[in-house]
């Protein structure tokens, strides 16, 4: 028999499978192929960061002999080379070729006269083609970005079929990776294992909190953020593993991993703002105006993240080494992050003013996440202006994952449900949330009113988890007719006969 949710799964599978379909290889791939036809006389093909001693380019070029003769130009990242010619409107084709140093073997003439090009004439369907297959090794004093272009100055345009394999050594961990990507796969695998541990610890702590009726919405959001982070890193590892194998990878997996990475960040950010406002710590619900503000803000943040991903995929120039935040959308995200921090500060200060007994939680909470809020803008500035472009991607990847690990690790430690934890934020049971937020007299909503001031519920962790044996031997009095108690020092007995007076009987 088919399970009841099978039709829903069938409806969801097509769009999910569509996400996993491979996209056409982009120019930045380490295995590059394409068919170029243009009226221009100089065109950029691809770029790669080669190691100082192990860089290798293997190529196959093919074009009609009538379009002879075309050149492959190899520029490196020196200011007098690629930056001097790319997007230089005042330079024509000859001027762009003039910066090439012939003694460095930076020109590959695609002709039979140039032996190192491996060109030969082939006849196909009555048309003569120049087919060139060979390779070139790269050696330099340090890792460098190399840019590959094709030119035919003074001709009638370019026509070229090309296939290139760009490699760094023969190791699985380096072969297809650009030098600026070294270590990304190993780093992602390491952080994946760490975040799996964090996720399972959060689930275990959540189980303990549920048993004490302290598993609040904010902690569930933390568990969700950790789980989404694990999925994101899993997809990143699959993408980089496939990329290490074939040099192409599945770009859809990488996009999906980035979306999950951003989703984890947004869930965690929303959780921090809610905790700053006291949600599940000092109040049962957020006011209507506060909910509207949060909805608008998170919608703007989500849209900006989506725009940033689209901008990076569609508008980043492959001829330039750019970082994610080098765009209007990136600067917009930094602005939203600063605005979130101002809001966070205001919310925490208001919560502390009304509930000073929560200082053991809010003071370290505020200090720890002040660092986190400023980590992203500082990282963006350092990446844009302080990290060399040939090392940027691998360094930024490690910093980003370290920032996420710091945020999740700090929260996991602060909310651990042990009796020795003095920072534990919750004291109101989940079963008390509804009564605390029930409509007040006259039908007015008191959902945003604060919880009763109380010490931390975590100090009674041991008594919550150990049976109270004194209760096993006591019988509570009926609620309707409680037994009267003797006044202090009255001399009256604690228990007395409440039967009406009557004649004495000999029993």
UniProtKB/TrEMBL annotation:
Gene Ontology CC entries for this record: membrane
Sequence intervals crossing the membrane: 189-209, 221-243, 255-274, 294-311, 331-349, 361-383, 395-414
Pfam families documented for this protein: GPR180-TMEM145_TM (PF10192), TMEM145_N (PF21892)
Chief localization: membrane
Keywords, comma-separated and alphabetical: Glycoprotein, Membrane, Signal, Transmembrane, Transmembrane helix
Subcellular location: Membrane
The keyword Endoplasmic reticulum is assigned to this record: no
GPR180-like N-terminal domain segment(s): 32-162
Membrane protein topology class: Multi-pass membrane protein
Residue span(s) of domain GPR180/TMEM145 transmembrane: 191-411
Keyword flag Transmembrane helix: yes
Region (Disordered): 477-507
GO aspect biological process, one term: G protein-coupled receptor signaling pathway
Region forming the signal peptide: 1-29
Name of the protein in its database record: Transmembrane protein 145 isoform X2
